[in-house]
Each structure stands twice: as structure tokens, then as C-alpha cells.
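User: I need a structural model of Glycoside hydrolase family 2 TIM barrel-domain containing protein from Danxiaibacter flavus for a docking pre-check later this week. Nothing fancy, just the predicted C-alpha cells so I can convert them on my end. Input:
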Amino acid sequence: MKLRLILVLCFLPAIAFTQGRKSSELNGQWTFAMDPLKVGEQRKWFENVFPSDKFDKVKVPHCFSVDPRYMFYTGTAWYFKRFAAAPVDNGHVFVKFDAVFYKSKIWLNGNLIGEHEGGYTPFEFDITQYLKPENVLSVQVSNAWDTTTIPGAKTAMNYSGDNQAQVFPWINYGGLTRAVHLITRPDVYVSNAKVVAEPDLKKGDASVRITALVKNSASTAQKVTVNAFVFNNGKQSSIKFKPATVSVEASGANKVEIIAHMPANEVKLWNQDEPNLYAAHIVAGGDTLNVNFGIRKFEVSGTKLLLNGEPIKMGGCNRPLDYPGYGSMDPQEVLDKDLALIKGGTMELSRINHYPVSEYLLDWADRSGLLIIEEAGNWQMTPKQMSDTMMRRKFQSQMQEMVERDWNHPSVVAYSVGNEFQSQAEEGKAWVRDMSSFVKSLDNSRLITFASMIVFRDWIKKPEDEASQYVDFVSANIYTDHLKHVQHIHELYPNKPVYISEFGLRADEGKTEEERVQHLKKAMADFRQCDYVVGASVWTFNDYFSRFPGTGANGYRAWGLVSPEREKRGMYIAWQEEFAPATLELLNKQNGKAVINVTARKDFPSYTIKGYRIRYNDREIALNTLHPGESQQIDVDLPAGEVEVELVKPGGFVILKKLLK
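Assistant: Understood. Predicted C-alpha cells for Glycoside hydrolase family 2 TIM barrel-domain containing protein:
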């Protein structure tokens, strides 16, 4: 019998394969070396016999850019991991990397098993045929950039100075920045699955359509029956899929679709305040893939964004992937802190980053109720780059890896195909037209946009002058003359919503915190005059390291509502009040009693608030469901002449504190 092997960590006993898949993490201690002269491959560092014992030890996930031994190194580096393997009689073994920045080549026992380009999305390789009882996994990494990388430098253009054109404005944090996994699957397995749950908002029921990609690692063709089971809070749904049988060629793949109807009594819609989740267990022969999903409808109707049929207008933020000592690793303790601050600031509709975020961030958003516009890495690519076939293919590869990883997250409501490129140029228009079509071919259940720095210019006279003609809603990065620019966009696109994908004011350019607050208040007053503005995403949530010209002398670009260490600035408190969906006002104060008037905002932000509470003096009072513009008055004790009142969202997030006296 032909034996295959399953990976185990070198300090663990061998384990036997059982039916289905197994997964473990190959994190912890690895061996590491810089390779600035690029001699490693020539001298065969990847060979098992290569004497790497004198190399350094690091802990993976690892970002060599913030390791004090290699601080901000740019170039080639190597990682090595030794592990043992136990024999098994069926199944295939894969190594999966959640993210490696930026280019990588991987060897197992001296055999090149694959290469990858793209710093934020996962990839994997089948390593079964190269496994031995004792193994060495070798990974070559480069975080260098040029005009052919995404992100990267610009090709020569007259609108960009030589110093600016050579860099991009976030640090090229290099390394094995996210987890490494060892996965064992049966010969025939579900490689990926897309779950599209479409509610009928009138009837209250929903359809659940699952498209499963079945792969066959065996040397002969296989037939397998695919079925699925749905659970909510651990309880199995009554819905029944009609199983489908699919044939898969040897070393091939095939798609199969199964559909079921969910009755109204089992449908719980997902939204920012009621983030209801379901789990689908997708079974193919001896393999099961588990994915979470939500039932919700996010759509455009004229100048409105609708979530489950109701208009929403929400604040949001941009969160550069940067934390002192961690760089771009984004561990759970950092994400939990940041996302609680974001949710507590009611920044709930966010163009969150210029590149794919971690899956943990999206899992948190699913559970807690954040709406995310995801973006792949076209940051200010030039017309020459956008028309280059190689660059287009690289972008499509990175976009596809992001979409296919994230298409089941209900928090992901739209995809952005880039940021601040020359969208008035013919190459920019073609980019948005073609990339929008490409993304829709992968996932047509989300909206499409991009962040424009051109659309509001006064020399854009008609929709055909700029690429926003091809998107579902217009996104614009606007830092001055907000009302004038937003009104111009509306004149161009009177039937499209407008989303402010960036706005803000730096803290380190001679501006006091009070000046920043006043800038914010003026911008928000402008947005509130425009009923077609559906969102505004602050640049930025946090300060971030950069080498881009104009960066502060301390190495940071100080746009943040919070400091690099996440200390709240005055801007965070001001933003929290401006982005809250309700206002608090003290009325009729007399004889130690008062009335608090709670009003759901009607202008911006604006959406129905349900399940909210007022907290004061260790007391909590549940609010009624308030639609935009509606109010509720609450009697409170005021023995000391003043009281601190908190507005609490579902999930326990305090989104507004006011001292009323």
C-alpha cells in the first residue's frame, strides 16, 4: 500500500489520520536569516543538510521589519522550520500561509513546491509527495518593491515628484506576518464554498444557495455527493438541501450548486445591531467544510444605501495596519482593542484599509456588526501600470484571493477596485470598467466602488469624464471644501449615493486639537446638508509609520483619532459624538429630577436604533425602537445637579457619554 504522511509539530507525538480534515498551526519557533546579497538560493539554503543551526531564532507569526535585530530591513530573508511526520494510508497534506509579505518561494526537503506574490492574502500548496519522517520547510521572503509590485513605486509621471514616485505611504512590513497551517484532507474534499443567502423582505423567508468547489487529489476520477446542513446558535435548521452528485477528474476540480428554502420563522436578518449568524456544514463524501454566513440584503436605490430595505447613513474609518512592536502582524489582542474602539465610536461603515484585512477582523465584524468595504492594493497606480497586462493579472490574482476568502462574511458589503489613481484617464476608466466586471464574475452579491481623488474636480464636467460612471456608488477622498465638492459629485451623478471614503486633518502640521475638532464639525455640518451622502470614513483611526515624503520627524503620519499606542485624542471623543446615531438633551431640571430627551438622528448618521439603552447612576433604561427623527423622553434622578449619561448599543458598546447639568 502506498503510504502518505501527515505533518505534526516536531515536539508532538505522531498522530494517525481519521476521516475528514485535520488542521494544526505551524507557528512558534522558526530559524531565520537575512539574505541581503541574495546568496541563499545559489548556495542551496533550502537543502535539508544546509547547516543553519547558527542562524537566529524567531517566533512566527513574525515581522522582521519590527524585530530589533533587523529593524526596517528591506530585501530577501529566509525562514526554516523542522518538523516530524507520521505515515498515513490516505489523504493529502497541505501547507497554508495566511499571509507572507510580499514575494515568497517555498521548498520542502529541497524541493521547490511553489511561489506566491501578494502580501495580504492566503495561499497553499500540496506537499504530500515530498514528505519524509523528518522534514525541513524553507521559505524565502522578499519585501522589496518596484514599479511591478502591488503595492509599489510609480512609473514616471509628470504629476508626481521623483521622491514621491519611488515609495508608497505605508511601511513594507516583511515576513511571515500571519499564521502558517498544516492541513490534511481526504483525496476528495471541498476546497471552498460560497454561500449566498437572499432574504425576501416582504415574505420574510430566504433562499440559501451554496456553490461548492470540489477538488480531487487522487489519481483516478471520483464521484461524490454534496449536501449541507445549517445551524443557528447550535440548533440545526429545518431547511433541506437536495444533495447533488458531482464527477471530478483526477487531480481536477468541479463546482456543484445546492439550494434550499428557509422559512420565515427561522430567518434572523443580520445588521449592525443584530449580527445574527448561521453556520453551514458542507459535506462531500468523507470531508466537511464549515463556514459562517449571515442573511442580509445590502443594495442601492437611487441615492440611498439600503440594509434589509431600510436606508442607512453611517460613519466609518480607515485603519492602517500598524501597531508599535507588531508592525502588520495584527494579533488578536490588538484587533480586539482597536475594533472595540471603532465600534464604540460608531464607525460602522468603513472603507477599512487599502489592502485585504485579516480574517479575524472580519470574523469580529461579523459577530459584532461592522459593515466593511474591502479593497485590494491599487494605490495610485499610474495609467501605464493600469494598462500593463502583467500588472492587471497581478491585481486580479490578489483581488481574487481576497474575494474567494471573504465572500461568506456578511460584514463585507462592497469591494473597492483601488484608491486615488488617475480615474479621468482612459486607462483609469478602463481599469474600473474591467476590474468591476472581473469582481462581479467572482461575486455578484456585493456592490462595487473605488476611492476617487478626481471625481469632485471642477474640470470633470460630465459622468463620462471619469471612472465613477462604472460603480454602484461614488466614493471620494475629500479634505477641503466638502460641501462644494460633494455637491459637484451629486450634479454629475444625481442618482447615485456618495460615500466619503477619506476626510480628516493631521495632528502634526501646526494644528491644535481644537482646530481639528472644528474642522470635523464643519465637515459633518456640510455632509448633513446632503441627503445623498450615505457614509463618511475618517482618515485615519490610528497614526501609522511611513517613509512617504511629508511624514513627521518621529516617523509617523499623525492623522489618527488615537495615537500609535491607541490613546484617545480629543478628536476621538468629538468623532464619537458626531457619529452617534442619537442625541441626548437634558430637559425640565427641577427638584432633583430631570427629563432626558433621546432623539434618533434624521440627517447623518441616520438609521433605526433598536435594543439601545440609557445608563446613568448604575441604572439602565431600555429605549424604544426609534426610527430616524423619533424621540423618547426618560425621567431621571438628578440629586447632585448633574448626571453622566451613557448611550449603550447592543453588545454593550458605549457610543456616547454626556455630562448633563
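Before docking, keep this in mind: DSSP finds nine helices and 39 strands in the chain.
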